[in-house]
UniProtKB/TrEMBL annotation:
Keyword Endoplasmic reticulum annotated: no
Keywords, ordered alphabetically: ATP-binding, Kinase, Nucleotide-binding, Transferase
Matching SUPFAM superfamilies: P-loop containing nucleoside triphosphate hydrolases
Superkingdom per UniProt: Eukaryota
Entry's Gene Ontology cellular component terms: cytoplasm
The UniProt record lists the keyword Glycoprotein: no
Protein's gene: IDNK
Classification via CDD domains: GntK (cd02021)
UniProt similarity note: Belongs to the gluconokinase GntK/GntV family.
Gene Ontology biological-process annotations: carbohydrate metabolic process
Recorded GO MF terms: ATP binding; gluconokinase activity
Enzyme Commission code: 2.7.1.12
Protein name: Gluconokinase
Amino acid sequence: MDCWPTEPGTTLGAFLSHKLGWPLHEGDDFHPVENVEKMSRGEPLTDQDRLPWLLKLHDIIQREMSSGRNAIVVCSALRRLYRQVLLLGSKALTSSEPGSVATCSLPGVWFLFLYGTYDMIHTRMVARRGHFMQPDLLRSQFEVLEPPAPEENAILLDIRRSTDDICREIQEHLRQLS
């Protein structure tokens, strides 16, 4: 069982879903209406805004794992806490030490961390049409961004590379895990 919560990578998520035959769960589809409205107005989300959304995605990951299916979940898990909520649900919020969570990974769950410069990502956001998240919100995302630590089962992927190259690298990781 492998679930792959990816950083903003809808294109890569769809490509992988097609190539691997795994179901794709697009995180944007699970945002509460209030979050979509807030982002549409150019207002950044708070941790409290994100929590119900992250818990929904946690439930999807758990459902897929329980059924033994491989799946891809596309979302912007910007902070370590967000990734922990994806893994542990509300248990991630009851850590004994503020800012730390004992479990950094779960077997079979990997994070694909797509990274690039602010300018590169902003240019791509400006070019896309019809998405509720305003490009002006990118700065706030960079401000809260906590790249994954080595113990978080993350694969770091440079978005300057082609989707084909990134997908090949992911497939190589899958082969090594088998």
